[in-house]
Amino acid sequence: MRAIDIHTHPVCFAKGYSRKEINAFADQALAQGVQQMVSLGDVLVFGSHPTEKQVRIINDQTHQVMRWRPEYFVGFCALNPRLGEKAVMQEVERCIALGFSGLKLEISNNARDACMKPVMAAAARWNVPVLQHTWSMTNIRQRHLHSDPEDTAALARRHPNVQVIMAHLTGCGYRGVLEAKGVDNLVVDTSGGFPESGILDYALEHLGADHIVYGSDLPIRETGVTLERTLAGTMSAAELDKVLYGNTRRILKL
Amino acid sequence: MLLDTHVHLGHWPFTFVPERSAAQLAADLRKNGIRRALVSPLDAVLAPDPLPANRALFAAVRRTPALLPVATINPALAHWRQQLDHAATGPLQAIELYPNYHNYRLDSPRFDTFLAEVAKRKLKLIISVRLEDDRHRYFALNIKNVPTKSLTAFLKRHPQLHPLLLGLGLPDIRALAKTCGNFSTDTAFVEWIYSIQTLVREFPVSRILFGSHTPFLITKASLAKLTTAKLPKATRAAIEHGNAERFFGL
């Protein structure tokens, strides 16, 4: 078994930011077969609307994590799209020059909002994927900040030249899987939520193994739990290899 | 040797998880190293009266000794004594409550007589705090998890009781443990990068019981937090089975 974890926060709410802790974070996953990880940054440490300076701090921390373990961590550049085109473009350009490989959107806005246009333009220009935090808004009702699976699927459809990663399969739920169905440039990550029965098999049936990628949401979740929920399903060995490893390797051009 | 304190048998209408027979459930648990499990009837959760589902469960597991049936009791119904009488016919002297699904507050004085009777009959008390993640449960099922505030009031009102609370998360345990010492917890909804090691650091080992929450959660995934945890042998044995054996007198 080999895996790449596309959804982690090695530094989370200002905790874990030391070389020793980052090494421990990576080593526990490596020991369980996770060969590389995407570090998405401490995206909520400053709340849902980080300033330009705060966005830079988040990304500088991710860069430091990448430098501590360059063979292990792939960095994604966290953004606040509401800061506007100039700020977004400058930060993406800065992060790409530092070796980042993707863009991360949290809960500053909804994925359908007009402020996403520069983000997607930047993704297209530098040919990097966009990972959008997504959760069913049926019960949460904060759609002005969060993105429902319907919104993230709409984002991917509007920008067919950009690879979009819809985060949190369990939170997207059965309805979310159906929203993601048939969108070629969209994959769903398995991170987040408890290891609920049934949803991964449902995603496999409707999306196929090419459109699912393994993610954990560490440290909020645990590597062993998230791996076992994937391994315990009905996937063939070939499908498992795609979900755990191959799809992310292709998306990140590793 | 694993003893699972948090397993259900029956149908749940909001997922596509196939319903299993008692024998199938026991076999699936055994594949994961779980030799015995406390099983409650899912059909009792949404039913207007839990007794029929309890009777069906007791009958279903009669030939499957690995599954120890736990009756679901709704103390808000007039025939709660009859429910307790039936519960006592099983191999385990334990009952389970679902305050949120059965629409009552545990700390209400209205249940003092019921709880006194539970203590008198020496029935072990299990309280289900959470069955599902309420952030994405079925929209029409407008039910919240049992609030920590209500649990705290209940535990303080009945200091002689020591229930097993199923479905607590780490934040819930931290909040409850600040003021109450008379409860134990299962592990199903405790999750962090080092779930069990974190829990053991913050909470007395003797009050931690393994629970997988099968079939809501994937058994093997629930178990992984325990199997991958770095724990002293005695601590592992206590969580895997020892604490549950002592708690239920097995």
Descriptive overview:
The complex is a heterodimer of chains A (254) and B (250). Chain A has 254 residues and is an alpha/beta fold. Chain A has helices at residues 19-30, 52-68, 85-97, 116-126, 137-140, 149-158, 169-180, 199-207, 223-231, 237-252, and strands spanning 3-8, 34-39, 73-79, 102-105, 130-132, 164-166, 186-189, 212-213. In chain A, α4 (116-126) links the parallel β4 and β5 (130-132). The two termini of chain A are 18 Å apart. Chain B has ten helices and nine strands. In chain B, the strands form two sheets. Chain B has a six-stranded parallel β-sheet. The model of chain B has no long low-confidence stretch (mean pLDDT 96). The interface between A and B is medium-sized, with 35 and 30 residues.
Main beta sheet of chain A, described? 8 strands, parallel
Could you list the spans of chain A in which at least 5 consecutive residues all have pLDDT below 50? none
Can you count the beta strands of chain A?
8
Structural class of chain B: alpha/beta
Residues in helix, % of chain A: 40-55%
Classify the beta-strand content of chain A into a percent band.
5-15%
What's the helix-strand series of chain A?
EHEHEHEHEHHEHEHEHH
Properties at a glance:
heterodimer, A: 254 residues, alpha/beta, 8-stranded parallel sheet, 44% helix, globular, B: 250 residues, 6-stranded parallel sheet, 3-stranded parallel sheet, 10 helices, 15% strand
